[in-house]
Design goal:
The complex is a heterodimer of chains A (281) and B (330).
Chain A (H helix, E strand, L loop, with lengths): L5 H25 L3 H6 L1 H11 L11 E4 L5 H11 L4 H4 L30 H14 L6 E6 L6 H12 L5 E7 L8 H4 L5 H8 L2 E6 L3 H13 L5 E6 L7 H6 L13 H18 L1
Helix pairs in contact in A: 1-3, 1-4, 1-12, 3-4, 3-10, 6-7
Chain B lengths: L1 H10 L14 H12 L3 E5 L9 H6 L4 E3 L4 H13 L3 E7 H5 L3 H9 L6 E5 L16 H6 L5 E3 L7 H10 L4 E5 L21 E4 L4 E5 L3 H14 L4 E5 L2 E3 L3 H11 L2 E8 L4 H11 L6 E6 L9 H7 L4 H14 L2
Parallel strand pairs in B: 1-2, 1-3, 3-4, 4-6, 5-6, 8-9, 8-11, 11-12
Antiparallel strand pairs in B: 5-10, 7-9
Helix pairs in contact in B: 2-8, 4-6, 9-13
The chains are: A alpha/beta (281), B alpha/beta (330).
Chain lengths: 281, 330
């Protein structure tokens, strides 16, 4: 499988680094879900700058459904790079009166559903996928949810429908970071083996390194070649992946209070990374 | 061990605790103490340990603690099974998920069989940064409608130990909505008592009565202070027991003061205000009456003081309603 030119990958890696930087910039104001935003930067770059088919007029041809509301930080940080939000407005995240909800509501730019009550995205994405197919469109539907959400029975009810209906226009993206609010998913309530579970439900499943732009792009390409089945990419990620100093200091920080992280050290590291990537391009 | 240590450190920075400093666990300590006395008590949580103050139970009685993962409906079913086998399960998550997400499970597996399952919700009403998905603005309304179920809305952490006692004193299902402090309190928390079915007359005045529950009690007392400065003396009732409701006290205050305002961190539909109105109507008492609560709309995420003010739940809103009913008295 080819993911195209090296410059395509390099360009997305630079965007991912900038998304990481935006995440820190936003969360350092009043705290937030920084670890997730940083870890999801590679997937976000691939989605918003490639896979969702940006239409050149500021929006996208395909549809993205965010299920786990607290990962909204990923969308905000990516859409800032896209020009749909300014960093100035995003810096009001967690402030009273802000439009930048920690857990997003529909109607707000970038969000198809009101998320935050976990496990409800996969059904709605499957419903959208069925309706888009019924209407004869070529839109593809992507739904991001987390490994912890797999503990909600609702996810598996959705998976059963998606496979039964052979929704090949549907891609589930699982942020498999082995962390939920109360600890490591492995310790709280194991969800593995995730790909095998989805295969048993009738999906085409692929485990990928969620912090490899190349692997994420390859999975997206493969998903388009699969017929008669929905596709699930189980993306292994770890909190703060891509910013070593924060990764090391806060390996279990599901939520990061404003005064709990050395934000400046994180910014310095990611700035150096951006400079190195740009220099090598 | 290393990982557990890190976890503890950063759970202290969870999304309720705004200060990154330890906050007393009035509820968690009381539950642990009760469990040490009564071996039938088990605790379950759906991925929320520190935010439901059950981390201390997890650490001290791990053999009687279950983190079932993000699976609230399953948690009710597991609790039902445990109760059917002789245990007394306390289940924990946020109010929104503890009620709306498992309503049918609660009805069929806790309430109808009348099992001693204690459903403990945190983040009552609008009071959270997490927004609509996490705001329980209709939980009292729907839980109050379920037969056999007791509904408690204590006004602050000083009543949380008493809420555990009240829950255990009722041989059946209980729902309580608790608000954990967002910052460490300035003074030590001194435990106070309340009982199922009994309101607390927190302040006595003859001009009108403010009947409040949960977070709104503090606002009601502040409102009464400001009204007194203007010569209007209000009684304030802390109605921590919403079901069963202290009908005798409602009727007594209606007759003694001739005007009533209700105040709650909940929709005006179906909660404390509705419950008080039902008692008054059933008793054939007509009087000036106003409900202070969320006006049949959704809110948004924000700090508690911001949301209480913006959505008309704070002392200023209560004062306005109090002046209105007082002015209408014959």
């Amino acid at each position: 499988m080819s993911t195209g030119s090296n410059s395509r990958v390099r360009n997305l890696e630079i965007l991912a680094a900038k998304i990481r930087r935006n995440t820190l910039d936003i969360c350092m104001q009043r705290g937030g879900y920084a670890g997730q935003g940083v870890a999801l930067a590679d997937i976000a770059a691939c989605l918003y700058f490639d896979e969702l088919r940006p239409d050149g007029r500021g929006w996208f041809h395909d549809r993205f459904v965010l299920s786990n509301g607290h990962d909204a930080i990923m969308t905000y940080a990516a859409l800032a790079e896209h020009g749909s939000y300014t960093l100035e407005e995003l810096r009001t995240y967690n402030a009273d009166g802000t439009k930048i909800d920690q857990s997003p509501i529909e109607g707000q730019l970038g969000f198809e559903i009101t998320a935050g009550s976990l496990g409800q995205g996969p059904s709605q994405a499957a419903g959208i996928a069925w309706a888009e197919r019924q209407r004869g469109t070529d839109k593809r539907i992507y739904c991001l949810f987390s490994d912890g959400e797999l503990q909600e029975g609702n996810v598996w009810e959705a998976a059963m429908f998606a496979a039964h209906q052979k929704l090949s226009n549907l891609v589930y993206i699982i942020d498999n970071n082995d962390l939920q609010a109360s600890g490591a998913t492995t310790n709280v309530m194991s969800v593995e083996p995730v790909p095998e579970k989805f295969e048993a439900f009738g999906f085409f499943a692929r485990r990928v390194d969620g912090n490899s732009v190349t692997e994420v792009l390859e999975a997206f390409e493969e998903a388009k070649s699969v017929t008669g089945k929905p596709y699930v990419m189980v993306c292994d990620t770890r909190l703060f992946a891509g910013i070593g100093c924060l990764r090391e200091a806060l390996p279990m920080a599901h939520y990061v209070a404003q005064n709990a992280a050395d934000w400046e050290a994180g910014l310095a590291e990611i700035d150096a990374k951006i400079a190195a990537l740009a220099g090598g391009a | 061990m290393n990982q557990a240590h890190q976890l503890e450190k950063f759970e202290a920075a969870d999304f309720i605790n705004r200060t990154h400093r330890p906050i007393p666990r009035s509820y968690g300590d009381a539950l642990l103490a009760a469990a040490k006395k009564d071996k039938r008590i088990v605790a379950l949580t759906a991925d929320l340990a520190t935010p439901t103050e059950t981390d201390i139970f997890r650490d001290e009685l791990p053999e009687r603690y279950h983190n079932v993962g993000i699976a609230e409906a399953n948690m009710i079913g597991l609790a039902s099974g445990m109760a059917r086998a002789g245990e007394i399960p306390f289940v924990h998550t946020f109010c929104s998920f503890a009620t709306k997400r498992c309503y049918d499970q609660i009805t069929m597996q806790a309430a109808y069989p009348n099992l001693p399952i204690k459903i403990v919700g945190f983040l009552p009403g609008v009071a959270t940064l997490l927004g609509v998905s996490h705001q329980a603005i209709e939980d009292v309304a729907i839980m109050r409608a379920i037969p056999n179920l007791v509904v408690l809305d204590p006004s602050g952490p000083e009543y949380h130990a008493s809420a555990v006692d009240a829950a255990l004193a009722h041989d059946g299902p209980v729902y309580m909505r608790l608000k954990r402090p967002e910052t460490p309190p300035e003074n030590d928390i001194v435990a106070k008592d309340f009982r199922k079915g009994e309101g607390i007359l927190a302040r006595e005045g003859g001009d009108l009565t403010i009947i409040a529950a949960g977070l709104s009690v503090t606002e009601a007392l502040a409102a009464a202070d400001r009204l007194a400065a203007d010569g209007i003396e209000a009684s304030v009732v802390d109605m921590a027991s919403i079901k069963p409701l202290d009908a005798d006290l409602v009727i007594d205050r209606a007759k003694a003061t001739g005007a009533i305002v209700t105040a709650e961190n909940h929709s005006v539909i179906g909660g404390l205000g509705s419950a008080v109105a039902e008692v008054l109507c059933d008793a054939g008492i007509g009087l000036p009456f106003k409900r202070v609560g969320l006006a049949d709309r959704f809110a948004e995420g924000g700090s508690t003081p911001y949301l209480m003010k913006k959505y008309g739940l704070d002392s200023t809103a209560i004062i306005k309603a109090a002046r209105d009913v007082f002015g209408k008295k014959g």
